[in-house]
Specification:
The protein is an alpha/beta fold. It has helices at residues 3-10, 106-118, 121-128, 132-149, 195-211, 222-231, 241-263, 268-276, 278-282, 292-302, 304-319, 325-340, 345-356, 358-367, 372-387, 394-405, and strands at 17-26, 29-37, 56-69, 72-85, 89-92, 160-168, 173-180, 186-191, 215-218, 236-239. Strand 9 (215-218), helix 6 (222-231) and strand 10 form a beta-alpha-beta unit. The structure holds zinc ion.
């Protein structure tokens, strides 16, 4: 087999002709350089937008990093036309082996993006021998290509959705994420967590698809509730159980901390015991570890406030076991009364919040809706955000989240 034919096959080239293959050394880095010629009578397309363009302006050499050949880097070099696009102005023409605007071949990019879904960034950067910053753009291109290839905007057919916020950049900033309870996939994400962010989502959905929403689960975030009521009148609004229980768990935390503060000076030993009870009181009754029971028995004997708080959290969890709407309503009312008369300030505040949203709490019980899957996504996003620390652009992080949580398929070039 001739070398030119061999490389044409190895690189999976189409109608292009291989002019030559050379091993070059640049700054001590060896690379196989495959020079190819595009078909002379081809139709030129703009590399910016992909539309057909007319006359060529001039031509210039371009190069694209391809998958390594053995232990050596591989580069495709070709003379490409510069074309005049009515939208983008003067641009180089698109080439069949690379995405528009990329210095890497499609096969190389697909491999990087596939790896990024599964491996830490340092691994990807080391294995592929690339600068991490370029990976963000690769993901953006893959995600944009997927969005362009599917029909519509990916927001069709939504019936039950969950809205949640996800912290990124060490918790200083927030993304609002919308997921489909049907598929479990993320369908929309945007920076911010205000009422305006939720309104932006509902506007993107449009009035017709908003009418089709039957249930929206969210945390007790005033702005989101207002926006949902205004835009999705047919949707039952459900208070996400995770957030409701967390509200109550936080109240217990406050009671425990106050008890610790009060005892710190007069009885350090007792204070240390209360501090150490932190994890035991967070566990639900069915989940207690050996030893937790003893801690709880001691709290029941000597620290009535903390024990009463723990029982209140348990009682609220039990509300979620209710079989019917009426049962749930009755159990929740019992709980609100118990919390309001508990004499524990944090629980009284918590009960007032829950009382103000009791319909939403009960809706979640009857609809069996929770953002639990979204919460799983929350930790994924935190991980991604951590992995994506090198990204300079928010758009790269959003693309990464869309890639992983939006379930965008990436095929390995084989
Ligand atoms: Zn163009």
């Amino acid at each position: 087999m001739r070398v030119a034919t061999l490389f044409k096959r190895l690189l999976r080239l189409g109608g292009e002709r291989v002019l030559g293959v050379e091993l070059e050394d640049e700054d001590g880095i060896e690379r196989v350089v495959v020079t190819v010629a595009l078909a002379p009578r081809r139709v030129s397309r703009c590399s910016g937008c992909g539309t057909r363009t007319g006359s060529a302006y001039d031509s210039r050499p371009g190069s694209w990093r391809h998958l390594d050949m053995g232990r050596v880097r591989c580069v495709i070099r070709a003379e490409v036309r510069r074309v005049c696009c009515s939208e983008c102005g003067i641009r180089t023409e698109a080439v069949p082996w690379a995405r528009a605007g990329s210095r890497f071949t499609r096969a190389f990019e697909d491999t990087c993006v596939y790896l990024v879904k599964h491996a830490p960034k340092t691994t990807v950067a080391a294995l592929m021998r690339i600068d991490w910053h370029t990976v963000g753009r690769m993901i953006e291109r893959v995600v944009a290509e997927h969005a362009a290839s599917r029909e519509g905007d990916g927001l069709d057919g939504l019936v039950r959705i969950g809205i949640d916020e996800v912290a990124y950049r060490k918790g200083h900033r927030y993304l609002m994420c919308v997921s489909d309870h049907g598929s479990g996939a993320l369908v929309w994400a945007s920076p911010g967590r205000s009422q305006a962010t939720a309104e932006a989502f509902y506007r993107a959905l449009g009035p017709e698809r908003c009418q089709q929403l039957r249930a929206v689960s969210l945390d007790l975030h005033g702005g989101w509730i207002t926006a949902t009521r205004a835009y999705a009148p047919n949707a039952l609004i459900c208070a996400d159980p995770f957030h409701v229980i967390k509200l109550c768990g936080d109240a217990l935390d406050r009671v425990r901390r106050e008890a610790w503060q009060a005892l710190r000076e007069e009885d350090p030993g007792r204070a240390a015991f209360i501090k150490g009870s932190r994890f035991a009181v967070r566990r639900r009754a069915g989940n207690l570890r050996p030893g937790d029971r003893t801690i709880l028995d001691e709290l029941a004997r000597d620290n009535h406030d903390i024990y009463r708080g723990w029982l209140l959290v348990e009682q609220l969890r039990a509300v979620y076991e209710a079989a019917s709407h009426d049962d749930a309503m009755a159990l929740l009312d019992d709980w609100i009364l118990a919390a309001l008369t508990s004499d524990l300030d944090p629980f009284i505040r918590c009960a007032l919040t829950i009382d103000a949203h009791r319909d939403l709490v009960v809706n979640a019980i009857t609809q069996r809706l929770s953002n639990a899957r979204l919460e799983g996504m929350n930790s994924t996003v935190r991980l991604l955000s951590h992995r994506a620390r090198g990204y300079r652009r928010l758009s790269s992080l959003l693309a990464m989240i869309t890639l992983v949580c939006g379930r965008i398929p990436v095929a390995l070039p084989t």
